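Appendix B, example 12.
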Amino acid sequence: MRVLSVASEAYPLVKTGGLADVVGALPAALAPHGIETVTLLPGYPAVMKAATAKVVRTWDDLLGEPARLLGGTIDGHPLLVLDVPTLFARDGGPYADATGRDWADNWRRFAALSRAAADIAGDFDLVHAHDWQAALTPAYLRYDDSAVPSVVTIHNIAFQGHYDATVFADLGLPDAAFALDGVEYYGGVGLLKAGLASASAITTVSPSYAEEIRRPAFGMGLEGLIEVRRDRVSGIVNGIDPAVWSPHADTALPAPYSVRTLARRRTNKRALEAAFDLARGDGPIFVVVSRLTWQKGMDVLADTLDTLVALGGRLALLGSGDAALEAAFLDAARRHPGAIGVRIGYDEALSHLLQGGGDAILIPSRFEPCGLTQLYGLAYGCVPVVARTGGLADTVIDANEAAVAAGVATGVQFGDVSVDGLVHALRRTIDLYRQPPLWSAMQRQGMRADFSWTRSGARYAALYRSLIAA
């Protein structure tokens, strides 16, 4: 089976979040099931470095621009790169300029990616489109009367690609597509909505999130469509790549370790204290690796920091996002020198040290489609403290009395994303931490769990085969 995976980013070539990790990991996860995955990416400068000179196809007019399709490889798997310099050869990020402002023509950039994917879909058995940036692909296939089945994966339904109706004329779709069951969305054009209305199947990145987005609180305006197509919706939990995230072979750690050598984590903890200017101590270090946004519950965390320190905890935070939240965390670090350390930005190696040296990772998200940082935490014995939502609820076993007695607890869940709810979770976590045998049992239980792509790859392969056989 040959599958075309269409996305706006893929690790290790270009990454802004978990989407890249998933797209980058899928080819290897699907290969054992007899599936060759060819990844199609936009020709950003970083991606063009992985492209070869081999021209696979050309367009004189791809939504108004000349374009080429180039071959390449990504981690040993086939790669296709859409080379349209006027759309992708830009300084800045994949979606925004150096100041953080979204490119005004993002609709055209990613419509071109989707149009190109649909044009070459006949060479494949199935097309898998990721998030709104690739979601027009199933719509193009639908209105082309293509028989190639398609899957759209929602990595975060909050990001939808909603644009003014005036862009419709330039998408190259028939007039009939601007309809309630097509691309029309609240009077404009909805790229994600178009894909959800047209795809053969819809997946999300956890079973709980697949249920949550059927409700207004989580569906972000698309809950009605998700409900109508509920028989086509399923949730498949993301995996993590053990070649990248494995504490016993992690070169970013001063002291790699395994489930049998947990005591070596102490060396990493000392290194983490030094990296974040934290006072040395034996109390718990809570860590955060996150975008600093409302979705991630970072406003609630900022409001609990004085209490966290009063309880005897320390915090090491790595992230960036909302300017007001960045300022709030930096201010807390000034108020509590030696107890709170903050790094604004992102550093891949430092994120590994946080997982390998921290005691507990805080993820108080208001909604979380899957989440990867809690999976990294489990793999590294950095106990997750998570809100009970989406993939966080699906992957972390709360240390309630029954789970602790059975020896299956792997973390702490809490339901109310509020200061009171988080403080209660912090108190529970610190109490567990002060019981070393219990705490180390939780660490080991999490480290023994299999969150590789093995099971998730099998589920995607089964879904693909069901669509091809239909």
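The chain has two domains: 2-239+454-469, 262-448. The mean pLDDT is 96.
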